[in-house]
Specification:
homodimer, mainly alpha, Arc Repressor Mutant, subunit A, Tetracycline Repressor, domain 2, 8 helices, 0% strand, elongated, disordered N terminus, DNA-binding
Amino acid sequence: MSFNSTTNSLLKSIPALERKPTKAERTRAEILQAALDFFWSHPFRELTIGGLMSSTSAGRSAFYQYFEDLYDLTETLLRGLEAGILEVATPWFEGEGDPLPLLKESLGGLVRVCYERGPILKAVSDAAVSDERLEKEWNGFLARFDGAVTARIEQQQAVGSIPAFEARPVAVALNRMDAALLIEAFGSRPRRQPQPVLDAITRVWVSTLYSQTTQRSQ
Amino acid sequence: MSFNSTTNSLLKSIPALERKPTKAERTRAEILQAALDFFWSHPFRELTIGGLMSSTSAGRSAFYQYFEDLYDLTETLLRGLEAGILEVATPWFEGEGDPLPLLKESLGGLVRVCYERGPILKAVSDAAVSDERLEKEWNGFLARFDGAVTARIEQQQAVGSIPAFEARPVAVALNRMDAALLIEAFGSRPRRQPQPVLDAITRVWVSTLYSQTTQRSQ
DNA sequence: CTTGACATGTGACACACTGTCAGTATAAAA
DNA sequence: TTTTATACTGACAGTGTGTCACATGTCAAG
């Protein structure tokens, strides 16, 4: 009754240029899909090349035709995730007009994407600590958001919608909070309810950036 | 001119009951110290039992007399760190009177302790993703702070010093931000300046908890 | 001291996983 | 079909782990 409906979801070929995927493309997609399925029910540490490949039609050695190692594979998943997140974050990053609704829209999109692909997020961040190369990619991924948020804060500080303070450390703080919270909430089953997570994140962002605070100095 | 001044810093025996440490205690302390030294200049992933023990006076197998594996050793370091942090966090958790200065004192202490022992923090959080047992300990460690912060928020919401909202998710968000930021800032050399980190953390905590926000609803 | 008993440490082993390579099978092109 | 390039495989060596029987060290009682 059911069949694997997402096997080719990773190819994302441009419809116009569609053509029969070659054997190599199919095997590669099969491996990626197997990894993805795995991450929905197991942590990264339990993944081995042998185990992964035995859930595909190819033997263990075939893995090395497509990926250097498990971290390389994981990096591929990260790239897809980054694209997805960047897309939903656009409103606040680039939108015009009242920034508060834009921020809320972006945070809502972020939570939605991470709810849908939480295990990828968790797998990547787990894997990153064990591999220098992937760790750099992961840090780069985070740093790109840090940069974008910093720029946006500074731009809005210039026009007075955000109070004056050193933008980057606050941007980093907010982004790290997002990442840690989203991983914890949606990284593995059972996932938490998205709404309270969104509410908490929104509260912290909004009060940090858009509330007229009366912070007494030291 | 210099000598290893901290070799026995891990024993922490009660001064009154001091007595000559047995051979086993000395070896154990030597291993812990070697690990600590290691973490100041290398990430957890580069630690192996063989490498660790070859920087001590004992052979590789002796390691297993004292620890189950590297995660067990790392757990020992976590326990010491938790004690240190709990101590400096007391003011806001338990103090009486105007909560804002208490919070600032606690956050200041937190940043100071983590600046001093950042590599431990990073080593533990790195190691945790690779080992189920240590991961549980680490989550427990975080959860204890979540609980304490949640309780404190709710108590102050009851007396009106903090606005009404669901306390736990916000507590979790703030704690995860702290952890991620402190690890990133102080987890490995070169460490960042403590002051901007403290400022950013303080800003987020204070504006989230103690500023009269005018958050427009959705 | 010397002895004995217990505490501490060791070398050698089996295991699991990794990454490589020469050679084979299979798919695609001619 | 034949040819050629591509995809795949099994066997191997390497690295690190954890365990075991045995060796060595320590220290108190005789």
